[in-house]
Amino acid sequence: MERKISITILLVFFAFPLLLYSKKKPDLPLKYKKWIKEEIVYIITPKEKEVFYKLETDKERELFIEEFWKHRDPTPGSARNEFKEEHYRRIEYANKNFGRGTPFKGWRTDRGKIYIILGASGQIQKYITGDIHPIEIWYYNGNPKFGQAPIFRLLFFQRGGVGEFELYDPMADGPKSLVPLSARKLESERIRNISFGPNVHPDDENAYKVLKEYVSDELAEASFSSFPGRDGPEHRLPSATLISEVRTYPHKKVKDDYAYEFLEHKAVVEVSYSVYYIGNRSKINVIQDTSGLFFVNYSIEPETLSVDFYQDKYFTNIKCSMRVINVKGKTIFQQERNFPIELKKEQLKKIGKRPFHLYDSFPLIPGNYKFYFLWENTVTKEFTSFEKNISVPEPESLQMSSLILANKVNKDSPYTQFNKAFQIGNLQVYPSLRNTFFQKDNLFIFFQVYGLSQELEENGMLEFTFYRGKQKFQTIRKKVNEYKNKRDFLQEFLLEKFPPGKYKLRVSLWGEGEKEILSEKEEFSVSLKPLAESWIFTKTNPPLKDPLYFYLIGNQFLNKGEIEKAQDELEKAYNKERDSLNYALSYARVLLILKKYQNAKEILLPFFKAKKENFALYYYLGKSSQEQGELEESISYYQKALSHKGDVVEILNSIGECYYLLDDNEQALKAWQKSLELNPEQEKIKRIIKALKEEK
Description:
Among the domains are: 126-251, no CATH class; 548-695, Alpha Horseshoe (Serine Threonine Protein Phosphatase 5, Tetratricopeptide repeat). It has 22 helices and 25 strands.
């Protein structure tokens, strides 16, 4: 018979379940319905909207709204939120100025929407003549940081000469929408001949003639192009793309990962304080390895661990998930690892009530980060979590690491061929999570100093000062050159003369002229009672020369947006192990970003010829072929991607573009219509389909 028992041993667990699931949108209270459907409808991201509809109480919604504005505040330390104030000012202005003559409030009109998204135009040109419908052109300076053109224009017109000013789309509307039918017919024969070929409808040609001859060259140009200085129908599709991207401009200005974090944290809070949450102790230290890479080393001690019992075996599985986010809210690294545990009865007896410590580590590029960690017992559903700030220094900067206090070290570890947490070369350190030491123990202090100059290596001084309360208890000074390694420092102290109590330790580096340069502090306690020895569980990582580390570091640079550094690291990983599809795909992804399409294709083709079935492989080959104008080949790769994963909106749109460029409008329509069935909220695709149908 199977039964479940609870044992007070400690175990670690990592997981970041987003707890996002699909369900029907709830019927929101009027206040929140108005907020999401009217007040912030143009600036909320799809991810934020998804999370908001998953919230279940008004308290959660209020907290989310607070976070929503906080993540848009340009001056987060001040009492005012200038973004929020400006947003509501724009809504008020839109309602006062753009709703006249329409059945809608101003914020719902096209001009109101653009004004709320982009603000006031730098210049507005109005056209009101008998030859054309009323027109306004709004000029904007774009922000290249968000992928916008430096200068662009948006045209608004009254369709049929009456009603609301609608946002004009050169692809879906065309010049004929700007000129009354009577004017097009009367002037088509008298104006000098202009022909754009079979891809332009005759009505659009005639309308363009009217605009150019009787109104202005600028307006005629704008009827085909949103880019000042560019004229002709070949600019219709790029202009339609720009118009579509303008609508999503607010999404690019905010890092919305916080929304999932909010939902995740909400779920943890609601569940954890009822049945499943357990406390923990944890420690994180950043250590530079002998290879020069910085590793985040962590240890966690959960307060309890429940295991299942079956057929004389005690077992559980610990899932550990982590996420590292930089100061801009961007996820730089995330990982999930499973630690299955199986014990026999005699092993369990040996462990007894000893605390369980899990050690692990991972490499991380320089920067300042927030580290999120979640431990989960997948068998019993217990979990715990913590978050901490971590800083990884630049290799050449003069800095001191945080202090690691331990009552045990191994100066001749036999596992130097592997990479283990809290191990540097032959030295294995076992950090104390409680920083409490038995009076008969030895206290080991480990830390690193990076970027030491030759002068400091020869003449620098390290000072160890212990405080008991506010009084200095003991001070020891040692020259830097007394240590064999000028980066890794290990100092041992006997605690037998330390009376029981709490202490503060301060380690400082002194330079020429008795000048203090660096310092770090740590608190600890000395006890008369010996502590139970920990049960330590750890996994060994691959040797430091393994290409896995180039792969991990390269993807971190890629996530951070440092593309050239990412290319260097991922190229090393690929060259070390060319038969790894994962390494090849990551390297190819960087090459695609750098527009090195042929190089990416050459890397991936051997895997395709070897009949490796992989969605990303087909997609990247399709993308590289499309960008090089190999449209039919691109379509074949995209079709394989669809057959592998099912219909994907982005790929269907790419197929549509390829067919359109091949002058196969029928197939282009099929692809875009299927894309629209999957995601009906694609305004750009709707306009393109409408335009193509009208050309038939």
